[in-house]
């Protein structure tokens, strides 16, 4: 997987849920680790018994020369293969992590008023990259339902530098920019909405992580599914179980902000969709990545996108029947690497994981009321957008008064 030690990897290791790690563990992987330990031990034994014919004082020089030669040969072959794995890297990056100050959320004292009353449904996806969406020109039919719609707008050129959930979600759900440090005072989108007399409702299929647990707690209502499953079990609940939970909690009054947090397309892909959505074959057979072919990996991943298509279309169809003043925003927390440059999954510094999928749907009532916003949306999504957009776009939609936000970052605003 070509993973190197970084402050992000350390945060991921300390703060991710145990079941996420177990999805990467397999029998071949354990055998591989044991094999490496045996090889290392054997080399140690062999070296201790080795009796070179030349003088002892030359042994160190010979070993040092050989090591330096090997270092430069391998670095030429693959840049950073040794430098990024030196012991001091782990020490330096570990120091950065443990010295990092926790997120500080600024409080809002005054009650806020809004000019617009809109029901907002925010679907927070997981590990879905824009490139594999049929809506964005992908040649496979990964969006057979959504692609038939004329009322769905996809943001193709969306960027985030945050390639794993623990870092991306706090940035998406707050006023923090992708260019800001993570220890300054920031406003939570839920704190603003609560003060604007909105009902904030969180429905999730992921166990909350340390980095965004406080954000979830700011919601007025919280419903988590699959919190009692064993971390040793791969039989996890599917996102589809969130559909009825959402429908039962949907209210016709137009001051609700629903967050639906999916497990989405996170590895292990085969536990993310039901078998009837197994459209592309052959699929992956083992959690040990090197034992799967690239075709199998992409097939299984694309099947999760087909299931996402069904999931979002189901919600949109439900909202259409209500005919309320409603908008749905789907945004994945980050993308996914599918074999580019020999890398897989995410939480690595690669462009494939920095382009998450995003789409917008709005009701007929919303379209009639806010024609200017729709026109601005169609213009703005043609260019490059960052995940900064969500916080500012939501506040722009409801037109919060006497509270500062950046309309230039809103996809519904008139941007320069």
From TrEMBL:
Annotated GO MF terms: transferase activity
Listed transmembrane segments: 20-46, 58-74
Membrane topology field: Multi-pass membrane protein
InterPro entries: Alkaline_phosphatase_core_sf, PEA_transf_C, PEA_transferase, Sulfatase_N
Alphabetized CDD domains for the sequence: LptA
Record keywords, A-Z: Cell membrane, Membrane, Transferase, Transmembrane, Transmembrane helix
Domain of life: Bacteria
Subcellular location(s) per record: Cell membrane
Keyword Flavoprotein in record: no
Residue span(s) of domain Sulfatase N-terminal: 119-399
Protein name per Swiss-Prot or TrEMBL: Phosphoethanolamine transferase
Organism: Wenyingzhuangia gilva
């Amino acid at each position: 997987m070509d993973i190197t030690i970084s402050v992000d990897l350390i945060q991921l290791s300390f703060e991710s849920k145990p079941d996420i790690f177990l999805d990467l563990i397999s029998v071949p992987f354990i055998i591989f680790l044991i094999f490496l330990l045996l090889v290392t031990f054997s080399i140690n034994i062999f070296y201790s018994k080795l009796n070179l014919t030349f003088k002892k004082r030359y042994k160190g020089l010979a070993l040092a020369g050989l090591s330096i030669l090997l270092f430069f040969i391998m670095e030429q072959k693959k840049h950073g293969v040794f430098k990024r794995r030196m012991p001091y890297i782990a020490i330096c990056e570990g120091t950065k992590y443990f010295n990092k100050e926790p997120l500080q959320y600024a409080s809002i004292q005054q009650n806020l008023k809004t000019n617009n009353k809109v029901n907002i449904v925010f679907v927070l996806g997981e590990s879905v990259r824009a490139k594999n969406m049929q809506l964005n020109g992908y040649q496979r039919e990964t969006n057979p339902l959504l692609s038939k719609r004329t009322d769905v707008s996809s943001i193709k050129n969306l960027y985030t530098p945050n390639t794993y959930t623990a870092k991306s979600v706090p940035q998406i759900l707050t006023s923090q920019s992708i260019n800001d440090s993570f220890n300054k005072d920031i406003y939570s989108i839920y704190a603003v909405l609560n003060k604007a007399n909105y009902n904030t409702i969180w429905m999730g299929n992921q166990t909350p992580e340390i980095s965004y647990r406080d954000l979830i707690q700011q919601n007025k209502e919280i419903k988590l599914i699959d919190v009692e499953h064993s971390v040793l079990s791969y039989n996890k609940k599917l996102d589809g179980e969130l559909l009825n939970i959402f429908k039962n909690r949907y209210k016709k009054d137009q001051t609700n902000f629903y967050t639906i947090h999916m497990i989405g397309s996170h590895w292990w892909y085969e536990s993310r969709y039901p078998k009837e959505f197994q459209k592309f074959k052959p699929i992956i057979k083992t959690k040990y990545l090197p034992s799967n072919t690239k075709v199998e990996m992409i097939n299984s991943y694309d099947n999760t996108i087909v299931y996402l298509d069904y999931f979002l279309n189901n919600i949109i169809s439900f909202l259409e029947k209500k005919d309320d003043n409603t908008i749905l925003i789907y945004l994945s927390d980050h993308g996914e690497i599918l074999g580019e440059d020999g890398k897989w999954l995410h939480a690595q510094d690669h462009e494939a994981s920095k382009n998450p999928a995003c789409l917008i749907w709005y009701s007929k009532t919303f379209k009639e009321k806010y024609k200017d916003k729709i026109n601005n949306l169609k213009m703005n999504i043609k260019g490059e957008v960052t995940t900064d957009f969500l916080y500012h776009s939501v506040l722009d939609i409801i037109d919060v008064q006497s509270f500062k936000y950046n309309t230039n970052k809103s996809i519904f605003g008139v941007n320069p």
